[in-house]
Write a structure and sequence with these properties.
It comes from Hordeum vulgare subsp. vulgare (Domesticated barley). The chain is of the alpha/beta class and 384 residues long. It contains eleven helices and 14 strands.
Length: 384
């Protein structure tokens, strides 16, 4: 071909090779962008689920969990200056010629203020106050024997108190010689077995009543009087308690049901779970995390069976705890545990404050100057 021909093109090997390489490389890069974006999105979603899996699980609970069988609620009748015979009859029961003995059995951690209110409220109506405390928490944290160290504070009830201490090992030997902590719920179960044994050593007999509850689950005197004076009371009956958190300024609901009253028999065992289908309405108060000092909040958050809810160290910051307590928010930044979306949405957000101090433990009201932190307007806590 002649050099001047218009069809002549110089052969450039580098250009041809470069073009062949460049086009496929650009094509692969462009086609990989959606895959990379999809991968990064999946990683972000997975990280979000990992970080917020508890909130997601609680939010979706109405979809995956079935609510327990509803209780048969026994209406609770009471009015001042009404005889026990009339009250027993209103409940469908009959009055006794003499009262039963009532034993109050609790596990104690560090709730000194609530325990004093409980004992002052129940002292005239119970035969024995049975109490057990351990030298470590359910999560294996060593703790002082607070009740033992404050016996003088409870001198008013000394004649009725049956007390014992439970030594708890904070670790057990593993199969390879290593040491591991016991599971908190296993430790809690051991506490309850020990309390069951202490209850039997207290002199309880068949036909007596035993109230099984945590220290902050306080039955009302009206409830205890029914248990003392009425025949026909169910052999095992749950007590529906008004639920409060941080103080009596923040009422949550009437969903506290774990406290129980038993007509004692040889088969009676100390438990804190569902044991019956019947529950007595408006039977008292449950004041959870109702502490005087900020340090007590942090200690319980780390100590009780659900200590895994402390997902970040910042949860234990004193300034945060104080802010949460005064705002009626959740200490563990969790959604409500509900079985329907209606109840879930209704309880989301801070707990509305109550300005009412009516129908609370009488000793609390009579000594309001000592327990101001448990009443409306008293949310500020001592820093230590």
């Amino acid at each position: 071909m002649m050099a001047g021909s218009s069809e002549y093109r110089p052969f450039n090997l580098a250009a041809r090779v470069g073009k062949r390489r460049l086009i496929p490389f650009n094509f692969k890069l462009k086609s990989a962008v959606p895959a990379i974006a999809l991968f990064l999105t999946a990683v972000a979603i997975l990280a979000g689920i990992t970080q917020h899996h508890r909130s997601i699980t609680y939010f979706l609970r109405p979809l995956w969990d079935t609510p327990p069988k509803p209780f048969t609620v026994i209406p609770h009748y009471y009015a001042p200056n009404t005889s026990m015979a009339e009250l027993c009859e209103l409940h469908g029961w009959r009055a006794r010629a003499s009262p039963r003995r009532v034993f109050d059995a609790v596990l104690f951690n560090n709730e000194l203020d609530i325990l004093e209110i409980r004992y002052r409220e129940l002292l005239p109506y119970v035969h024995k106050l049975v109490i057990l405390e351990a030298n470590a928490t359910f999560t294996g944290i060593p703790k002082p024997l607070s009740f033992s160290e404050n016996l003088e504070r409870f001198a008013f009830a000394r004649s009725k108190i049956v007390y014992d201490r439970l030594p708890v090992a904070t670790a057990t030997a593993g199969s390879q010689g290593s040491r591991r902590r016991e599971e908190p719920f296993d430790v809690e179960a051991r506490h309850r077995r020990a309390l069951n044994a202490l209850l039997r050593r207290s002199g309880i007999a068949a036909g007596d009543v035993v109230i099984m509850a945590d220290a902050d689950e306080i039955p009302s005197p009206e409830t205890v009087q029914l248990l003392r004076w009425c025949d026909g009371v169910p052999a095992v009956m749950h007590l529906q308690l008004e639920n409060y958190v941080y103080s009596f300024e923040f009422p949550v609901d009437r969903g506290s049901w774990r406290a129980t009253a038993h007509i004692f028999s040889e088969r009676t065992a100390y438990q804190h779970s569902r044991q019956s289908d019947v529950i007595l309405a408006d039977a008292g108060w449950h004041c959870s995390f109702c502490f005087r000092e900020i340090a007590e909040f942090a200690f319980k958050m780390k100590a009780y069976s659900h200590a895994d809810r402390v997902r970040r160290e910042s949860f234990l910051d004193p300034a945060r705890i104080q802010r949460v307590v005064c705002g009626g928010e959740d200490l563990f930044d969790m959604l409500p545990e509900e079985y329907t979306f209606r109840d879930l949405f209704k309880k989301m957000g801070p707990i509305p404050r109550s300005a009412s101090a009516v129908h609370l433990p009488s000793y609390l009201i009579k000594n309001a100057h000592r327990f101001r932190f448990l009443l409306p307007g008293g949310c500020l806590r001592r820093p230590a």
